[in-house]
Amino acid sequence: MSSFLDYLTLGIVLGSMYAIFAIGYTLVYGVLQLINFAHSEVFMTGGFVGMIVLTEFAPSRPHGFPSVLWMVIGCLSGMVGGAAIAWCLERVAYRPLRKAHAPRLVFLLSAVGASFFLYNLCGKLFGRTPIQVPSLYTNSVLFHWPGTSVEVRVNQVVVVGAAVVMMIALDRVVNRTKLGSGIRAVAQDAETAGLMGVDIDRVVSRTFVIGGLLGGAAGFLYGYAVSGQVVFTMGFVPGIKAFAAAVLGGIGNVRGAMLGGLLLGVIESFTVPLLGSEWIDVAAFVILVLVLMFRPTGLLGERLGRSA
Amino acid sequence: MSESEPPLLELDRLEVSYGAIRALRGISVAVRRGEVVALLGANGAGKTTTLRTVSGLLKPRSGGVLFRGERIDGVPAHHVVALGIAHAPEGRRVFPVMSVLENLRMGAYRFRGGARREDLDRVFGLFPRLAERRTQLAGTLSGGEQQMLAIGRALMARPELLLLDEPSMGLAPMVVRQIFEIVREINQQGTTVLLVEQNAAQALRLATRGYVLETGAVVMEETAEVLLRDDRVRAAYLGEGAA
């Protein structure tokens, strides 16, 4: 029982990170029917910007309130960095192609090219070995699951808490704001959205920025609280996983991405005791294939409107 | 109406191409304030292309679109609606996974403050069916209801000019009559209407004037009464005589 809860905890932590990462894939797919494969570099950017801010500016051993404050600053700067890169990606790698009505495959190549460029640039600038992210507090045990000895640590609570806050905020933006209705309208019928007065370019740009904010946060949380380090290739595997999570939940569907992320995290986590840690990636993708065989549109279906 | 006032909408020798295909070959059309003008013609005559050019979805290759006497060709669609032209497109194009109410709110997207109470009340007054189904997803409505929603959504933008593309498409005759009755009411409340129809009989009963398009050119321009009695129109578009 206690080891079950242990793995469940780990799975939820990993899964909530995947969830906020996956939202970026799903939002962009919703408005452009395009898989933004460079989103993994948005994640990496979030990790690096957070690391740089904490290394350069944070006091070496903050205590109490400053610890929390610097955690928030690190996360926010990761978000801003992620959003900035996502905004640039849309401008440089995708918008010119949209204006030229380029075929789908060209977008994909542009995405992969942008991704290679960004992570190699990062490797060139910061070196190709992992860099430690300075820690802001002791990652001590915060509480035990009631009635057991299963520990829950500060970092785990931080990751899940931050992810929950962001998912609630995003859900509100998509469902309750004018930008949100613009995003949903463009996702359902871009041309008609234009007839209603929606500036499609602006909505697309802001959709990338929103995805970038969440992707950057995911990168920071991963670098700070999950791996404790950042490296130029850090986005690749989690990026594929987050993409898989988005497909699992139903690509284009925001709540689907959240569900898919959480499920994938939990599945991965339970693979370790059941099959061994070398099976993690296999298990994740086998589940993905199985789900898609029986529900080709993912668990909640493809549709930004519904989801969202 | 004074003679000196420019038409509300004027298409001046408009040419539009899709690649090498010339869809409109220099058509000139005028719509005066308060009119219902019908564009008639067979499939592929260029009726829908005309409306799409007016609303900014297509850019003309030459010629001009003038609204209230000012050139608007080349203005992007999302700005055209703010000038006072709303387009209920072919095939209705409601947002399928938004509710009826959300669809209507989308119609008012151009307003900073969102949809106005009185505009919603007006649309629900014209289309009581939409009021009954306000929380239902638009994709689950019947064809007639979707058409009502598409028109209602266009009205939410408070247009001076309403572009209606094939409102009768795929609908039962009774529903078509009902919708045309409401379009008449909308016109009487002060909205000018440019109507594209294959159902020429219905369209001409409502219209003040009509244009007949064939392969991208205007071949006739007459008042509705004249067109209704014209032998060629009766044969080709009203399914009578030597068709």
Automatic annotation (TrEMBL), chain A:
Listed Pfam families: BPD_transp_2 (PF02653)
UniProt GO molecular function: L-isoleucine transmembrane transporter activity; L-leucine transmembrane transporter activity; L-phenylalanine transmembrane transporter activity; L-valine transmembrane transporter activity
Keyword Ion transport belongs to the record: no
Bilayer-crossing regions: 12-35, 42-61, 67-89, 101-119, 154-174, 203-224, 282-301
PANTHER family: BRANCHED-CHAIN AMINO ACID TRANSPORT SYSTEM PERMEASE PROTEIN LIVH (PTHR11795), HIGH-AFFINITY BRANCHED-CHAIN AMINO ACID TRANSPORT SYSTEM PERMEASE PROTEIN LIVH (PTHR11795:SF371)
UniProt subcellular location: Cell membrane
Keywords: Amino-acid transport, Cell inner membrane, Cell membrane, Membrane, Transmembrane, Transmembrane helix, Transport
GO biological process: D-alanine transmembrane transport; L-alanine transport; L-isoleucine import across plasma membrane
Membrane topology listed for this record: Multi-pass membrane protein
Organism: Mangrovactinospora gilvigrisea
Location (main, coarse): membrane
Classification via InterPro entries: ABC_transp_permease, BCAA_transport_permease
Family affiliation: Belongs to the binding-protein-dependent transport system permease family. LivHM subfamily.
Name by which UniProt lists this protein: Branched-chain amino acid ABC transporter permease
Record-linked CDD domains: TM_PBP1_LivH_like (cd06582)
Any one Gene Ontology cellular component term annotated for this protein: plasma membrane
UniProtKB/TrEMBL annotation, chain B:
Phylogenetic classification of the source organism: Bacteria, Bacillati, Actinomycetota, Actinomycetes, Kitasatosporales
InterPro entries associated with the record: AAA+_ATPase, ABC_branched_ATPase_LivF/BraG, ABC_transporter-like_ATP-bd, ABC_transporter-like_CS, BCAA_Transport_ATP-bd_LivF, P-loop_NTPase
ABC transporter domain boundaries: 9-240
Keywords noted in UniProt: Amino-acid transport, ATP-binding, Nucleotide-binding, Transport
Source organism per UniProt: Mangrovactinospora gilvigrisea
A GO term, aspect molecular function: ATP hydrolysis activity
Membership in a protein family: Belongs to the ABC transporter superfamily.
Descriptive protein name: ABC transporter ATP-binding protein
Signal peptide limits: none
UniProt GO BP: L-amino acid transport
SUPFAM superfamilies cross-referenced by the UniProt entry: P-loop containing nucleoside triphosphate hydrolases
Entry annotated with the keyword Protein biosynthesis: no
Entry keyword annotation includes Transport: yes
